[in-house]
Amino acid sequence: MIALLVEDERPAQRRLQRLLLAHPACAAAEVIPADDLDTARTVLATRAVDLLLLDLDVRGDDGFALLAEPATARARVIVVSAMESRAIEAFRHGVVDFVPKPVTEARLMLALGRALQAVPDPRVRELVIRTRHGAELVRAHEIVALEGAGDYVDVRLRDGRRLLHDEPLVHLERMLPDGFVRVHRSHIVPREAIWRVHTQPGGGRELELVDGSRVPVSRRRAAAVLRQLNRGRAR
């Protein structure tokens, strides 16, 4: 991944670079700083930039001018600016997020998570799980189950760990790759983690997972869940 950081204040530039590299999905990124728009244009014209962190006041120039460059079209853009009055304008330009200054680590991590999921790729098999302590990159095959708990999601992993993702289940569901099944209003499981299906005396169903735990299957989803499981076995 190549990240272009357009910021004319060197201390802010260094801090943003440090925070960017602290994100699990960006740890190996090549970060290119630019403290003026001409430098940024040169980078965009000569490198395949994946992620652009953009200030709006760059030595008196309007950072939005960069968004008119054809080479910017492939990049996911996060605006980082103290000019909060221009946030609506930023979203009209199609940016992924607007992070107000002064920048906090938690807010930037949230924006990076959004940016990295902004262009879904069916080959992606990793998720950024945002927790109270930062962010962690989790491979989809490590997940046993996801359980919604209000505004949070309990992510249960094969190694026994549990992570608390700080967004509702419906938000995380949009990021999941193929192979995950919504079995209940509060539960999503990967097909490969399902060991067997149990039918209860009253006709209800439960799924036994590879870690020995069980999750309920809602009655209204039962038929669709069984069809998905059968399709998965047939492949």
Care to describe what's here?
The chain has 2 domains: 2-116, 3-Layer(aba) Sandwich (Rossmann fold); 126-234, Beta Barrel (OB fold (Dihydrolipoamide Acetyltransferase, E2P)), CATH 2.40.50.1020. The chain is built from 6 helices and 17 strands. It is elongated and about 70 Å long. A 5-stranded parallel sheet has the order 2-1-3-6-7, sandwiched between helices. A 5-stranded antiparallel sheet has the order 12-11-10-14-13. The chain has a 3-stranded antiparallel sheet with strand order 15-16-17, with no helix packed on it. By secondary structure, it is an alpha/beta fold.
Strand line-up in the sheet with most strands? 2-1-3-6-7
Number of helices: 6
Compute the separation of the termini in Å.
Answer: 33 Å
Strand content: 25-35%
Describe the largest sheet.
5 strands, parallel
CATH topology of the largest domain: Rossmann fold
Tally of individual domains: 2
Shape: elongated
Give the fraction of residues assigned to helices: 25-40%
The whole-angstrom Rg is 21 Å
CATH A-level architecture of the largest domain: 3-Layer(aba) Sandwich
